[in-house]
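Need tokens for this chain, all 124 residues.
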Amino acid sequence: MPVEQQPQDEMREARARIARHLAELHKLHLALAEDTRALKRFTAAGQPRVEIELASEMLEQYLATSHGFLENMRGRFEARLSLLRRGEPVLNGKPENAPGHGAFWLAFSRLCAVLRRAERIAGA
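Here are the structure tokens for all 124 residues:
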């Protein structure tokens, strides 16, 4: 395998792994949604307090777990920003002459924007 092909293959594999995990997460979300739809039976049976308590518990636990995960990921990548920034491509001592310079900064800016968004969501 050519040397320059290896990073592309590794990137494709990482994307596929992440996509599989996100698909599994989506399935779990669907299962949770189905379980919460079934909570109506408590209200229909004259026990709305049971539905209220279970809904509250589920939402609180989900928010706490999601918040914890988001904070962990945000902190992890924010801590790496300076290292990532130093990975800017350079050609003849000039970053602006390097192939991929624009693509690098577009990707870096995207990560920064997503981190700001994650901070707003986690702080809400």
